[in-house]
Design goal:
Length: about 130
Amino acid sequence: MKHLLRTYFFYLVALFLATQVFGSSFTLPVDLKQWLIAAAMLSLLNLLLKPILNLLLLPITLLTLGLFSFVINAAVFYLFLQLMPQASISAWTFPGFTIASFAVPALELPYLGTLLAVSVLVSVSTNFLAYLVE
């Protein structure tokens, strides 16, 4: 039970982080109840569906040296967006920045690129939080 609550909290924090990083390109409703439902739905999808997909698609993941796991993350996140119609993703424009003559140019991601980036951010942040707790 403690593991489920911890995972739920991690996904709640990860969704908040993703909405802050991607701004208006990834939105969730402002209602706290909807945030709690979204975190519960995403954590259940990742706890129940993702291991099944990882097992079924293991040969492809091995052939791509693990890179296909990003596609699996994006597919689970896409299913989350379909089940949670209040959440939305649109194209995202990274404004770029310059630090001490090191410039990172502006970048525009289409819908699928934003979906992949948000799913990777959520996955990395939940794994990082789990690493910190253990």
